[in-house]
Amino acid sequence: MTTTSDETTTRLTGRPPIVDLATWQAARDELLVREKAHTRAGDALAAARRRLPMVEFDGTVEVTGAAGPVPFLELFQERDELVVYKHMWHDGAPHQGQCEGCTWAAWHLKDAVYLNARGVSFAIVTTGVWEEVAPFVDFMGYTQPWYSVRDTAEPVGGDMGVIACYLRDGERVFLTYSTTGRGNEAVNPSMSLLDMTPYGRGETWEDTPEGWPEGRGACWTWRSDAEGNPTWGETSRPVPQWTRPGAAAVETLGRRGECH
């Protein structure tokens, strides 16, 4: 680590101040006290979630997956707990026109092996019709089980862009928790890692020191053009799609309206 030769703080434009290792460690130790408090507050919230009441509903309601219509109960895969991500959908849109925020969420949990080891299954549901959903899942290379909940009421269907948790007791099924918005960041470790870096997420809403690089609009990492430039334009794709075999530049998102 580079250190300074005197006791004064050295500054570079748009960079953290440069100090010696002992000074850095003292500042780091001070922040650690706050980080531990934040962790304990999170533990307390998790304890409160475990004490929420739950809602019973009909677990035999059918959803449609690769094997055709199946009862929602099947998503548990004989485990007692289930986490579901509810993926928004643009009817009739090509792959690049599908929801960028939901792609952001689904891409980060492609394998539920650690959840499975704790007795928890994971699935993705969407309001898209299965005939449109299946080729999208194949294109993205997703290995999670996907299902269409077209015209299915809450708490199986309903609002999308949501993480929902369920519990079963034999043939009885219950909704225990749901979250949306920034609550969905739980499936995206990239955001937590960016929060540890000097420039953070690079978004305009963040509290950053004077002189830091100018931030972009919230969620600017969701879409980019073929050159990797963040953009919400008609030539963009959700960022992970550019890694898919055969993904080429596009001229339109092909959207007919708002996703649902």
Give an overview of the whole structure.
It is built from five helices and ten strands; from the N terminus they run αββββααβαβββαββ. It has 260 residues and is an alpha+beta fold. The protein has a six-stranded mixed beta sheet. Strands 2-3 form a two-stranded antiparallel ribbon. Strands 9-10 form a two-stranded antiparallel sheet. The chain is flat, with a radius of gyration of 22 Å. The N and C termini lie far apart (50 Å).
Indicate the percent of residues in helices. 10-25%
Q: How much strand content do the residues show?
A: 15-25%
Mean pLDDT: 94
Based on secondary structure, the structural category is alpha+beta
Global outline: flat
Q: What's the Cα radius of gyration?
A: 22 Å
Instruction: Compute the number of helices.
Output: 5
Number of strands: 10
What is the CA-CA span between the terminal residues? 50 Å
Widest sheet, order of strands: 1-8-7-4-5-6
Characteristics:
260 residues; two-stranded antiparallel ribbon; flat; single chain; six-stranded mixed sheet; alpha+beta; disordered N terminus
Structure, briefly:
The chain has 260 residues and is an alpha+beta fold.
Describe the secondary-structure layout.
Blueprint: H1 21-49, E1 55-57, E2 62-65, E3 68-71, E4 81-87, H2 100-107, H3 113-117, E5 120-126, H4 130-140, E6 146-148, E7 162-169, E8 172-180, H5 189-195, E9 223-224, E10 237-238
